[in-house]
Design a protein that fits this description.
Blueprint lengths: L1 H4 L1 H10 L1 E5 L2 H12 L6 H28 L4 E5 L10 H21 L7 E5 L1 H10 L44 H13 L5 E2 L3 H6 L2
Length: 208
């Protein structure tokens, strides 16, 4: 880009752009799968493992944000870990909330140290929790089973599909349906304040 348009033009473009980060969901799945193989571990060991996971992820997250900043990124739209799994389990969602708390603290601490950095943190966990708690308000009829594969089996080319995917929160056992993605985008852009902090995505886009 710099070779084609010049470094000054590229720097100006990057400083006005919004960068979307939506990562760490898969880390929860992989960690939980590994823990299932060692179910005889004590509760203290499991808590220590979770703390090490958070420390590793937050360290990588901090390095990633800092590197993006050094390359000229100034406006970050960040999505936390959502309600994990097609049929949410206590263990996975405890992991998710622990990481989300750590991510919130990281961003609040990073922003003052990186002059000009503006961010919006979208709370996918709270949004999907609300959708599951009151599905009919958003047009859902199924909050547990997935549209593809019913949530118990992987979504494959020969999998059975639901009749109306817009009535399902989940597309498969790990991903939201298109309707859920649309509603989430609306909520983060200019929806209720509880879904974004410290500003929403619209305010982020207008911040420059």
């Amino acid at each position: 880009m710099a070779a084609a348009a010049g470094s000054h033009s590229v720097s100006a473009l990057l400083s006005r752009s919004v960068f979307l980060l939506d990562i760490s969901n898969n880390d929860m799945y992989v960690f939980a799968a590994a823990e299932l193989l060692t179910q005889n571990r004590s509760a203290a060991d499991q808590r220590r493992d979770a703390a090490e996971l958070y420390a590793n992820l937050i360290s990588n997250y901090s390095a990633t944000v800092t590197e993006l900043y050094s390359m000229g990124a100034r406006n970050l739209a960040i999505v936390n870990v959502w309600l994990v799994g097609c049929v949410p389990t206590d263990t996975l969602n405890q992991l998710a909330t622990g990481f989300d708390d750590a991510l919130r603290s990281l961003l609040a601490g990073l922003a003052p140290r990186l002059p000009g950095l503006v961010y919006s943190l979208g709370d996918a966990f709270v949004f999907t929790r609300d959708a599951v708690a009151d599905p009919r308000t958003l047009g859902y009829t199924d909050v547990a089973g997935a549209c593809c594969g019913s949530g118990l089996a992987p979504c494959l080319p020969n999998s059975t599909l639901c009749a109306d995917r817009d009535h399902h929160v989940f597309w498969d056992r790990a991903h939201p349906s298109q309707w859920t993605a649309f509603l989430t985008a609306q909520a983060f852009y200019d929806g209720p304040a509880k879904y974004t902090t410290p500003i929403n995505f619209m305010q982020l886009a207008q911040s420059n």
